[in-house]
Structures are given as C-alpha cells and as structure tokens.
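Table S2 (continued). Query chain:
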Amino acid sequence: MPLYVMFSKLTNEGRATIKRHPDRIKEVNDEIEAMGAKIITQYATLGPYDFVNILEAPDNDTIIRVSFEIGSRGSVKLITYPAIPIFEFIEKMG
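Corresponding output:
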C-alpha cells in the first residue's frame, strides 16, 4: 500500500486544544483511520513542524480526503508527500 509522510504544524487554536486535552491526538488518529488511512508511526518534533506522521493509504484520494477534512478544522496545517521505500526506489531506477 502507498506510504505518505505528513508534516503537521499546530495553529494557536490547535496548541490550546492539545494543552487542554492531550488525548485529542489519539482521537484524531482514530478519525484518520476511519477515513481509510493507517498511521504507521508518529513523532512529536522540535523545529518548524510539531508532528511527523508516516501513513499508509490505498490511494491519493484517501490522503486528499484526510488532509482536507483534518486541515479544514483550523487547528493544524498539513503538508503531505508520497514516500517510496528506498529499495523500491533503487529497483525502479535500475
């Protein structure tokens, strides 16, 4: 199944929500899975992004739906890239 890297940056509203209700992160993860994507791993990070997520989804349409649904709430800004496992990349280049 295709992989995607999603960079997340909380808005002021999102930071306030997470501060009051840290378990909201788990609830959003459940919502993402209900939309058809699977979170493979997730990291809180320092720097320009607050979270880096590796997701699996059947197709770009699913990731577009996830990005628009979650992003439309105003609590987070998302940047998502398709990812190709390095050995698959090498094989395709050969």
